[in-house]
Write a structure and sequence with these properties.
With 625 residues, the chain is of the alpha/beta class. The chain has 28 helices and 21 strands.
Length: 625
């Protein structure tokens, strides 16, 4: 009777699970028992899932034990359904979103046959297959398949790499997740719930962690380090940026002081060793839970070994072309997590090198920096032109752009030839252009040319795959661009609708002529590209994906002695009953505690010392010795 009512509701809210229950083969049937108070209980494989005395009171005590976590959370993940006693009680005590993980269909069937749970089924989301679970909330469409589904990366833990969502950042489970264990269920299904480690890891991360971001001394990843740092701060993390650009003069001096390449290399190694030691020193003082390095960050092998020995997780974002910058082979295995802007062939190479946790993470735009900009007439005149290019004068660009020198064309950036052909097109004598002015150029230009760099082709690299940051930055400004075709571009933008590509110089010239004459079409495409970036391609999207991948791989933060232990985790380990759990609950609002915190509380207390307090005092004496 109850089963039919329950399954009717379940068909509406979770049709896949309803179908699975209806089609279940009765391989095993849990044993329904009656507790001392007459209420049903359940035993599976000799494990009682509920009290054999009073399962209702047990559920009430379970909720009371987790009371602080429940109050502090808007999303609650419960590990185990059983007959649902604790779920019913939990629903009385929170309006937050409830997700219940239960791998056994026979247990769920027993629950639906035993009680009328229609109101509960309409209230909670039940997950049986972890591969189908997404970190995107209901009502927010997951636009990105999981890393394993899309071939976006490999996690050493194997089968579990939860789907990562794009779209509105409000669609993710944020800082206030609570993980509540129904211990008998976890004991019954240890392997299944081990896989939920990713969810526990995400909970730890989303509470906010200390992150040390290590930038390069010089190069294209320098501004990216800044974007990542500011984004992670906005996401609620405590972030410190090791800004190594202050040592760029030392790097240039090393290049100037000697023409001997071996001597220059030695000087760079000494500088790298110094900066690596500085990172270790900062770790000792700052106590990060993650060291996140960008391409060209000066961390040597010895530094990475020390970080690993001290169990400080490290991540590296290699925002360079693996075919050109081969140093990745020396460092990739030294990092716990390795992120790339290429996949395909690069993934095959990483696999050969024995790299375990790697993931495809395209570049992005910082909407705080790269945005629409209203310019005055003077700025439009100074920065504007029919056609513009911002960037360094790489080999292919120097050759290719000679075919555009009859146009109203401005070139901004360094490394360009100063011959008669180019001289009048190079702005400011070939100086580097800062981000603020770059944004003005994007906004002032009718057409922005985006030609990916190559050191050995005379035009477009026919094998080009990764998408450069300019693609996202121009789009984020609501500016129009023509870009060369890239293998991975159409995964990120709709070609022809949000971005227009050119195949060669002749094609580029035809499209320049066309779009100069069709300004409204140009504006429509640019606006669509801007919306796509805001929806999917900001640094917030990338940093969320990066942290979720860490969680999927079982991220474990280091525990610094001075920081203490998580109060919630200590209470969970103590169990819901007993003097220890009750005593620790008085620290629930502190987040983390040390033995010193507990001793101070005892010393300031009044009345007789309890047995638990006596044990802590003894522990303190042993530590002193």
């Amino acid at each position: 009777m109850f089963f039919e009512k329950n399954i009717t509701v379940l068909r509406k809210v979770n049709p896949g699970l309803a179908l699975a229950l209806l089609n279940r083969e009765a391989i095993s049937n849990p044993e329904i028992l009656h507790a001392k108070n007459g209420m049903p209980s359940l035993k599976v494989d000799s494990i009682a899932l509920h009290s054999l005395y009073d399962p209702v009171k047990e559920a009430e005590d379970w909720v009371k034990h987790h009371e602080q976590k429940i109050q502090d959370s808007s999303s609650i993940f419960v590990l185990g359904f059983g007959l649902g006693y604790h779920i019913v009680e939990l629903c009385k005590n929170t309006d937050g979103e409830l997700i219940v993980f239960e791998p056994r269909l026979d247990v769920l069937e027993a629950a639906l046959e035993t009680f009328c749970l229609t109101s509960i089924l309409a209230r909670v989301r039940i997950v049986t297959d972890l591969k189908q679970f997404s970190f995107v909330k209901k009502g927010n469409t997951p636009l990105t398949p999981s890393p394993l589904e899309r071939g976006a990366g490999v996690c050493n833990r194997g089968e579990l790499s939860p789907p990562l969502g794009k779209g509105d950042t409000g669609g993710f489970y944020n800082n206030n997740i609570a993980i509540l264990e129904h211990k008998p269920s976890v004991k019954l299904n240890p392997e299944y719930f081990k896989k939920v480690t990713a969810i526990k890891s995400l909970e730890k991360i989303n509470r906010g962690i200390k992150i040390l971001v290590v930038g390069p001394v010089y190069g294209g990843s320098l501004p990216i380090a800044g974007y990542c740092s500011s984004t992670l701060r906005k996401m609620g993390h405590t972030v410190e940026l090791m800004d190594n650009s202050r040592f760029s003069d030392a790097l240039f001096f090393a290049d100037e002081v000697t023409k001997d390449r071996a001597r220059y290399k030695r000087l760079v190694e000494i500088l790298t060793a110094f900066l690596s030691e500085a990172v270790i020193a900062r770790c000792e003082a700052f106590k990060p839970r993650l060291v996140f390095a960008l391409a060209q960050a000066p961390l040597n092998a010895e530094c990475l070994e020390i970080l690993r020995a001290n169990k400080i997780p490290t991540a590296f974002w290699f925002v360079e072309d693996f075919r050109v910058m081969g140093y990745w082979r020396k460092i990739a295995r030294s990092y716990d997590y390795f992120f790339t802007i290429q996949k395909g062939d690069f993934f095959e190479e990483l696999k050969k090198e024995g790299v375990k946790n790697y993931h495809y993470l395209p570049l992005a735009a910082s909407h705080d920096e790269h945005r629409e900009n209203k310019l005055n007439e003077e700025e439009k005149e100074h920065y504007g032109s029919d056609v513009s290019f911002v960037g360094a004068g790489y080999y292919n660009r120097r050759h290719f752009f000679r075919g555009l020198l009859d146009l109203d064309f401005k070139i901004w950036g360094n490394g360009w030839p100063q011959d008669q052909g180019y001289a009048k097109y190079i702005q400011r004598g070939g100086q580097r252009i800062e981000t603020e002015e770059t944004v003005k150029i994007f906004n002032a230009s009718e057409i922005n040319i985006n030609l990916h760099s190559s050191t050995y082709h005379k035009g477009i690299n026919p094998f080009g795959d990764f998408v450069n940051p300019r693609t996202f930055e121009i789009a984020s400004c609501g500016a129009f661009q023509l870009t060369d075709r890239r293998k991975e571009l159409e995964e990120l933008f709709d070609l022809g609708e949000e971005i227009v590509v050119f195949e060669d110089l002749e094609d580029l010239r035809l499209k320049i002529s066309y779009y100069l004459e069709h300004s409204e079409e140009r504006k429509t495409i640019a606006e669509k590209a801007r919306q796509r970036v805001l929806k999917e391609h900001t640094y917030e999207h990338r940093m969320r994906e990066l942290l979720e991948f860490l969680a999927a791989c079982g991220y474990e933060p280091p525990v610094w002695k001075e920081e203490g232990e998580s109060v919630h985790e200590l209470i969970d380990e103590a169990g819901s009953e007993g003097e220890l759990a009750e005593y620790l609950s008085k620290f629930a609002g502190k987040g983390r505690i040390t033995l010193s915190d507990i001793i101070k509380e005892i010393e300031n207390g009044e009345g007789d010392i309890s047995r638990t307090e006596s044990i802590f005092l003894l522990m303190n004496e042993l530590v002193k010795k």
